[in-house]
Amino acid sequence: MAERAMRVYLDMCCLKWPYDQIGNIRISLEKQAIESVLQEIAEGRIEAVCSTMHDFENELNPNPERAAKVRLWLAGRIRHEHSPEPVTVRGEELAAQGLGEYDASHIAWAEYLGADVLLTTDDDFLKRAARLASMIKVRVQNPTDFVREVS
After folding, report:
1. Could you tell me the domains of the chain?
2. How far apart are CA 90 and CA 92, in angstroms?
3. What's the longest Cα–Cα distance across the chain?
4. Phi first, then psi: what are they for 104, rounded to 5°?
5. What is the per-residue pLDDT for 138?
6. CB 3.0 to 4.6 Å from 113: which of 49, 72, 99, 145, for a disulfide?
7. How much of the chain exceeds pLDDT 70, in percent?
8. Which residue in 93, 146, 83, 71 sits closest to 116, CA to CA?
9. Cα angle vertex 51, ends 53, 90, to 5°?
10. Residue-wise over 12-29: b if at least 16 C-beta within 10 A, else e?
């Protein structure tokens, strides 16, 4: 029996990053790591799990060209039209613990969809998630660290 592919939930920072300008070494490294993860997804070695939160947040993107590229990547990857009650309740629980509303929702979705890891380049999100690690059921990690770990 084949082992299932690792499930990765990328937050919107990661999905927009490949279309951003490279401003410094850190951004360049993160962009390369994200592109590596996206390549692994394209080749079927990693499974991307996506949520309606991705669509919602992408529609707020002020850059229509970048939003269109992300929308195209998301197409067919979102399996739920609405947030199931457990996702909503869990998101509210996490937000009450100090996570931002969007970050809490992304974690709730990642947990619900069975992600092994949630990737983000957002330092504040990473710090808050680390503080709440004992109550979060998915690992939250920077893509550069993730690629270094799985390579």
Report:
1. 6-150 (3.40.50.1010)
2. 5
3. 45
4. -60, -40
5. 98
6. 49
7. 95
8. 146
9. 75
10. bbbbbbbeeeeeeeeeeb
Segment 39-64, tens digit of pLDDT: 999 999 999 999 999 999 999 999 99
Locate 66 and state its tokens.
């970048």
Find, among 146, 126, 131, the residue nearest to 30 by Cα: 146
Alpha-carbon span 127 to 142, nearest angstrom? 11
Check pLDDT > 70 for residue 22: no
Single-letter residue type at 131: R
Find all residues with CB under 8 Å of 46, minimum gap 6, and list them: 5, 6, 7, 8, 37, 40
What mean pLDDT is predicted for residues 25-45?
92
